[in-house]
Amino acid sequence: MASILAVDDSEAIRTLMKVVLESAGHTVFIKENGREALEFAKAHTVDLVITDLNMPEMGGMSLVSNLRRLDAYKNKPILVITTETADYKKQKAKGVGATGWIAKPVDKDRLLTAVQRTVG
Prior knowledge:
Layout: E1 3-7, H1 11-23, E2 27-31, H2 34-43, E3 48-52, H3 60-68, E4 78-82, H4 87-96, E5 100-103, H5 108-119
Parallel strand pairs: 1-2, 1-3, 3-4, 4-5
Helix pairs in contact: 2-3
C-alpha cells in the first residue's frame, strides 16, 4: 500500500482522508497547511500527496510548486482536493505540477478511486 501525505485546513476533511485511506491499508500523514506539509516533505518521502488549494500560511498551489523543486518529489503524484471548479484553476494547478484533481465534497468511494488510479 501507499504512504500518503494529506493536507487540508479542515479538520473534518483531514479526518475523512485519514480514516478512509488507512482503512484501505495506506499509511497517512496529516498536515493542516502547506507550510507544515513542505517541512514534512523535506524530511520524508511519500508515494502520494493530496492537498487542498485554499489554506492559510501556504496554499496548495504554492505547496505543489515547492514540492516540485525537491528532488524526491519531482515525479511523485500530487492530487489537488478542492471546492474550486473553474477550469483556469485546474490549468494553473496542472501548470505548477499537480497530477490530478478531486472535487469536494468528496466521499469515500471517489477518494479511494482517485488514489487507486494514481498509485495503483
